[in-house]
Design brief:
Elements: H1 19-53, H2 58-94, E1 113-116, H3 117-120, E2 130-131, E3 137-140, E4 146-151, E5 159-168, H4 173-176, E6 178-181, E7 184-186, E8 189-193, E9 196-203, E10 212-217, H5 224-227, E11 238-246, H6 251-262
Antiparallel strand pairs: 1-11, 2-3, 3-11, 4-10, 5-9, 5-11, 6-7, 6-10, 8-9
Helix pairs in contact: 1-2
C-alpha cells in the first residue's frame, strides 16, 4: 500500500495558494476522517450484534469476524494516514518555507502514534467498549488467550511500545504473558503508571514492508464468576485502554523514574 503524495501546481507554488482553499481542504479531510472513525465503530457493533442474533457459532462466526476485522483494519490505516496528512498541511500553513521541500511523500511518523479503544475494537478477540465509573474507556480480550494486532509502523528505528491496561483477570499474568512481534518473542516491563498498569517493550528495527504483527499470549482466560469476584460469566484476559508507540525507553530511564518516585 503506497502512501499518498502532495501534488503541487508548478504555476502556483504552495505558499501562494489561497488560504480559503487550504482551509476548505482541511475541513473536508477532518469531516471524512470523523466519518471513517464513526463507521468503524458502527460496523463493528453491527456485525457483533448480527452474529449474536443469528446464533452463529464456531468456524462460521470466526470467519465472518476475521474478514470484517481485516476490512476495518484497512480502514483504520486510512484514518491514521488522513490524520498525518492533516497535521502535515497544518504545519505547512503555519511554517511556510521559502523553498518547497525536496521530499513530497507524507511519511507515517510512528513516534507518538496512539491507538484508542475505538480503533482497537475491530479486533476479533476484543469485546465491546466499556467505561469505568471515572470515564475510562477499555476493551476486554475474550475467551481466546491469544490477541493479535496489526499496525502500520515505520520500523527504520527501534520503537517503544506501551500498552496501557485497565485490569488483568489475574494479577500474576503481568509476568506470565508473552509479547511477540512478527512471531519473535520480545521482553517486556510491567509497572503502575498514573493508576493504571503499563506494559512496555522495545520493538526492534526492521526493513520489513507492510503491517507489523503484535501478538499478546496469556496463560489462560477466566470468568469473574469462576474466580468469585462477580457474576460475570464471560471468559476474560486483559482490559486494554490504549496502545501507544513512542521513543524506545532504556533500562536506565526506568531506573531513574523509579528512583524519583521513591525520593
Amino acid at each position: 500500500m503506497g502512501y499518498p503524495h502532495l501534488i503541487t501546481d508548478k504555476k502556483m507554488p504552495p505558499e501562494k495558494q489561497p488560504q480559503e482553499s487550504t482551509s476548505e481542504l482541511l475541513d473536508d479531510i477532518n469531516y471524512l476522517n470523523k466519518t471513517n472513525i464513526d463507521e468503524i465503530t458502527k460496523i463493528n457493533n453491527q456485525i457483533r450484534q448480527r452474529i449474536s442474533e443469528t446464533d452463529l457459532a464456531g468456524n462460521i462466526a470466526n470467519s465472518i469476524i476475521t474478514e470484517v476485522s481485516s476490512q476495518l483494519g484497512q480502514l483504520t490505516v486510512k484514518v491514521n494516514l488522513a490524520e498525518k496528512a492533516i497535521r502535515s498541511i497544518q504545519s505547512r500553513q503555519k511554517y511556510k518555507s521559502p523553498t518547497p521541500p525536496r521530499k513530497k511523500d507524507i511519511k507515517v511518523d510512528t513516534i507518538g502514534q496512539r491507538f484508542s479503544v475505538d480503533q482497537l475494537a475491530v479486533n476479533s478477540n476484543l469485546l465491546p467498549v466499556e467505561h469505568s465509573s471515572d470515564g475510562t474507556s477499555y476493551v476486554w480480550s475474550g475467551s481466546t488467550p491469544e490477541i493479535l494486532f496489526t499496525f502500520p509502523l515505520d520500523r527504520n528505528k527501534v520503537l517503544g511500545m506501551h500498552i496501557r491496561l485497565f485490569a488483568l483477570i489475574k494479577p500474576e499474568y503481568s509476568k506470565q504473558l508473552k509479547v511477540l512481534v512478527d512471531e519473535t518473542h520480545i521482553k517486556h516491563k510491567f509497572r503502575l503508571d498514573e493508576g493504571l498498569f503499563l506494559l512496555s517493550c522495545n520493538i526492534p528495527s526492521s526493513s520489513k514492508a507492510g503491517l507489523t504483527e503484535v501478538k499478546i499470549i496469556l496463560p489462560a482466560t477466566h470468568s469473574p464468576k469462576e474466580l468469585g469476584t462477580s457474576n460475570d460469566m464471560r471468559k476474560l484476559g486483559i482490559a486494554i485502554t490504549e496502545i501507544h508507540f513512542g521513543k524506545p525507553v532504556s533500562r536506565f530511564a526506568h531506573l531513574l523514574k523509579r528512583s524519583k518516585l521513591k525520593s
